[in-house]
Design brief:
Layout (H helix, E strand, L loop, with lengths): L1 H21 L10 E14 L8 E8 L5 E8 L12 E11 L2 E11 L2 E4 L19 E3 L1
Parallel strand pairs: 3-5
Antiparallel strand pairs: 1-2, 1-4, 2-3, 4-5, 5-6, 6-7
Length: 140
């Protein structure tokens, strides 16, 4: 009987550890900033948590190497620009290591000659209610 109880507790603990690992928050690291010029392969709206707006995520293929990148941009409500599959896009963001996935948290996008800023130079999101709470600030 003790063996079954131990096994049951172990399985619950393992399940809690796995679910916590899947929900580990990502943080912007300015020391891992990369610049990628590529072509948009796919545009998605991914749910992050229940009751919250979906997040804009772009699959990008680097122009020079054809290496695929997944780019997390911002909550969908914050981003006001039209992007289309096949268009050229330049991203500046923080490279996040997640196994074989090349994940980038975007700070700035260059699209059709415009610069769209979604995070400040320290990586703090412009949508978070800080002084930069403006929708994707533009520079020309």
């Amino acid at each position: 009987m003790k063996w079954h109880k131990f096994l049951w507790i172990f399985m619950i603990f393992l399940g809690l550890r796995l679910s916590a690992a899947q929900q580990t928050p990502r943080f912007y690291n300015v020391d891992k900033e990369v610049e990628i010029l590529g072509k948009i392969q796919n545009i998605m709206m991914e749910p992050r948590s229940e009751g919250r707006a979906p997040f804009l995520v772009i699959e990008l293929e680097e122009k020079s190497t054809q290496k695929p990148f997944t780019v997390e941009v911002s909550p969908a409500w914050f981003f006001e620009y039209d992007l289309h599959k096949g268009e050229s896009l330049k991203i500046i963001g923080s490279l996040v290591s997640e196994g074989a996935l090349n994940l980038v948290m975007a700070r700035q996008l260059r699209h059709r000659g415009e610069i769209i800023t979604v995070r400040d130079q320290h990586g703090f999101p412009s949508w978070s209610g800080s002084k930069g709470n403006q929708r994707g600030r533009r520079k020309r």
